[in-house]
Each structure stands twice: as structure tokens, then as C-alpha cells.
Amino acid sequence: MPQENNRKAQTFEPRVGIAQLVFGLIYAFITGIAVVLAFKVYEASGGQQPYLQYLFVVLFAIMAGKSFYIYARTKILYSTGTHTTGTVESIEPSHGITLVKGCIKLKDGRELYIESRYAGESVAHEIRHFLDEQKTKKLPALVVEENGKHPRGMFVIHTYAGHLDNEYKNQLIVDKKK
User: Fold this and answer.
1) pTM score of the predicted model
2) Closest Cα partner for 129 from 91, 85, 161?
3) What is the pLDDT of residues 23-66, one digit of tens each?
4) What is the CB neighbour count within 10 angstroms for residue 178?
5) Dihedral of CA 80/86/90/93: which sign?
6) Which residues, in sequence order, are CB contacts of 21 under 8 Å at separation 6+?
7) How far apart are CA 10 and CA 152, in angstroms?
């Protein structure tokens, strides 16, 4: 396994898709305003074309389209990803977040280094306690584009209000016993 400081995390972040959805809605709203503004300028100028407003309509429409595309692609990747397990290498609580680092062994033998972030420092202690209690270093993970050029992955850990979700822990225990 390569040295940790020489590895680049290939992490999949579905939250990016949600942020892009919000930006897409904002851009679409601005596009609508630009269309109305272009119409008002056209009427006020006596039939002269408002090219500047057209430019903003096109610009924000492209940005909205791009944001919606990123959201849709992220959602598709998340739903079609391969569920597997990842080996936890470190769990670091810092500045109000928990950073879980580890790797996933791909089908072709490669290792995929991933980092997942969770809100709250108490999640780190709860995950450590859970892993020690279960005597394992494995957690559920998701790999997207596994057969592609640039596979990415993430740990699938459910949290609620800055703590590890109890139903999730119970599900992990049941899954392990199967």
C-alpha cells in the first residue's frame, strides 16, 4: 500500500449534487428575471434589441443547465453505485467534523483511497467504539464508476444530529451476522 501522504483521495460527494440543484434553481430564477427584464427593455426602447439582456439570459440559462446536469449525474451515480465494504485506516475528529479515511479494494485489484466527512466530532468516538465493539475495521462503502477511468468511493455511514444513527448501527450488526 502506498504512503498516505502520496495518495490522492478519490472521494465521491453526493452533497455536491444537492448544492448544484440549489444553484440551478437560483440560476433558473435569475434567467426568468433576465427574460422579463429583456422584454421590458425592448418595450421601453421602442423596439431596439436589448443584446445585453439577451447575453445574461443565455449565460444564466447555460449555468442553470450545467447545474441541473451535475445534479442529475450525481444522483444517477449514487443510485447505480456498487455497494461494498471499505477498510477504515483512521478516524479524525477536528473542528466540528469527523474525517474517516480508508480504502476500498476494487474488483480488478486496485485500491481506492477515500475520505468521508461527517458533521460533529462525537461521530468519530461513536464509530471507533462501534468498530472496537464489533472487532472489525470494515464499514459499508459505495463505489461509483468502478469500471470507468476514474472510480470514486465513499463510506456509507448514517448520522443524525451529529451522532451515529442507532438504527444504522443495528442494521450493520444484523448484516454482519448474516
Assistant:
1) 0.79
2) 91
3) 999 999 999 999 999 999 999 988 889 999 999 999 999 999 99
4) 4
5) positive
6) 67, 68, 71
7) 5
